[in-house]
Design a protein that fits this description.
The protein is of the alpha/beta class. It folds into 3 domains: about 1-140 and about 265-335, FAD/NAD(P)-binding domain, CATH 3.50.50; about 150-260, FAD/NAD(P)-binding domain (3-Layer(bba) Sandwich); about 350-455, Enolase-like, domain 1 (2-Layer Sandwich). It has helices at about 10-25, 40, 45-60, 80-100, 150, 155-160, 175-185, 205-220, 275, 310-325, 355-360, 380-385, 410-425, 430-435, 445-455; strands at about 1-10, 30, 105-110, 110-115, 120, 125-135, 140, 170, 190-195, 225, 230-235, 240-245, 250-255, 255-260, 265, 280, 285, 300, 340-345, 350-355, 370-375, 390-395, 400-410. α3 (about 45-60) runs antiparallel to α4 and α3 (about 45-60) packs across α7. The longest helix has 23 residues, at about 80-100. The protein is globular, with a radius of gyration of 24 Å. The chain starts with a strand and ends with a helix.
Length: about 450
């Protein structure tokens, strides 16, 4: 069987590619061994944000006295939280499954493995195509820490189905998954200890974005260890014990369960990319800005290229690859990561677009910077959410906004105004000219913009 395009993986990136190519009239096949729906819907964005909402509500109820309300006892029912999550995930997944079964696609619910650069083995048959898109997603990384496999652990894939609240939890890692799920369990009553190798959590971001989150975690009773060296894990009766170095001393921490949140890796082991003659580096597929691999007719999108493991970027990559795969005689579309954005749904939330100070220094990008705290902002004070700040980066001379970084209330919503301004190559002076209603959280961005305008004067 021959198709114009074969897409391996029917998640967010693969479906975006399939839709784009089918809209151009191509004969598109999708190969996905299931379960259908993709990581975001089944094991990532949607289930995690659903359960986080429950712990956010619980946290707000604990603050009742601050708002002049009589506090009431509140207790989390993890099984009920998971039931709600499962119900919503089924609804989300049903829409995606129906879309994959659309007659304009040919769906193969089998595993795929390359036999050559032009053929894949799909179940018991051989399929050929003019072009291929690899969109197989990612799986939790396996980290060689002595004793970890022996004592056992949960990854984000499994912990989202946990129905009994653990009394205690060791979280290994300090990235977005560790931060979000660690705070969730702390808020529903689990004693949480987070162990992070780097100097601060969210180490891929500027330090000043992480510190307010760390302060909130400590206020909520989480134990944080940063700048650590994890030596080994061991079973200690019914508990699992981490042995690690911190501030020059060897320490131990024990818990009922371990959440291994040390990252994910591209899901490419079973694709036989050697037969396809596709180049990989450090277990990821190497691509260019057209999403092409070392084989010009084979593309790779989403987590398998490990550039930016974020859903909306995976979708954009899928659309670029889907177009290029079925328009070989037209000018290629390219990915532009200038507007790379990320949101971490901790409390306070963290949201960024464009480079931070750390990245600007590393790449020798000149910039001016200014920030303003939520603790001096009227609407934040009325909400009782004063931890965090807004930081803007602009080009010297022109004032063009090149980066925006928010840690604080509703940061994930506020960042989109910054994305729009940057999309149009707007300046801090443009930001000042845009009306901002008072009192709103969004008007806080005008204060660092004003400080930058003064620096530009």
């Amino acid at each position: 069987m021959t198709h114009d395009l074969i897409i391996i993986g029917g998640g967010s990136a693969g479906y975006a590619a399939a839709r784009t190519a089918a809209d151009a009239g191509a004969d598109v096949a999708i190969v996905d061994h299931g379960p259908l729906g993709g990581l975001c819907i089944l094991r990532g964005c949607m289930p995690s944000k659903t359960i986080l909402r429950s712990s956010d509500v619980m946290s707000l109820m604990h603050q009742a006295k601050e708002f002049g309300l009589a506090p009431v006892p509140v207790k989390a029912d993890l099984a009920a939280i998971i039931d709600r999550k499962d119900r919503l995930v089924r609804e989300f997944a049903e829409d995606r499954i129906n879309a994959l079964h659309n007659p304009r696609f040919t769906l193969y619910q089998e595993r795929a493995s390359f036999r050559s650069p032009r053929e894949v083995q799909v179940g018991g048959q051989i399929l050929a195509a003019k072009a291929f898109i690899i969109a197989a997603g990612s799986v939790p990384s396996r980290i060689p820490i002595p004793g970890l496999e022996e004592v056992g652990y949960l990854t984000s894939d499994e912990i989202l189905d946990l129905r009994k609240r653990p009394a205690s939890l060791l979280v290994l890692g300090g990235g977005p998954v560790a931060v979000e799920l660690g705070q969730f369990f702390a808020r529903i009553g689990t004693r949480v200890t987070l162990i992070q190798r780097s100097r601060h959590i969210l180490s891929h971001l500027d330090e000043d974005l992480a510190r307010p989150v760390e302060a909130q975690f400590q206020e909520e009773g989480m134990t944080l260890y940063t700048a650590t060296n994890l030596h080994r894990l061991a079973q200690d009766g019914s508990l699992k014990t981490a042995h690690f170095s911190h501030e020059g001393r060897v320490k131990t921490e024990s818990a009922e369960l371990i959440l291994q949140a040390l990252g994910r890796r591209p899901n490419i082991e079973r694709l036989n990319l050697e037969a396809a003659q596709v180049k990989t580096e450090q277990a990821r597929v190497v691509i260019n800005d057209e999403m092409r691999t070392s084989q010009p007719h084979i593309f790779a999108v989403g987590d398998v290229n490990s550039l930016l493991e974020i859903v909306h970027i995976a979708i954009q990559q899928g659309e670029v690859a889907g177009y290029n795969a079925v328009h070989p005689d037209k000018p290629a579309r390219r990915m532009d990561h200038r507007l790379k954005a990320e949101v971490i749904f901790s409390d306070p939330q963290v949201a960024t677009v464009g480079p931070g100070e750390k990245e600007c220094r590393a790449q020798q990008i000149p910039y001016l910077v200014a920030s303003y705290p939520f603790s001096d902002h009227g609407k934040a004070l009325t909400l009782g959410k004063t931890r965090g700040h807004v930081k803007l980066l602009c080009r010297p001379g022109t004032g063009e906004l090149i980066g925006a970084h928010i840690v604080g209330p509703e940061a994930g919503e506020l960042i989109h105004e910054m994305i729009v301004v940057m999309y149009y190559h707007g300046t801090v002076r443009d930001l000042l000219r845009i009306p901002h209603y008072h009192p709103t959280l969004s008007e806080i961005v005008t204060y660092p913009a004003e400080a930058l305008a003064v620096q530009l004067a």
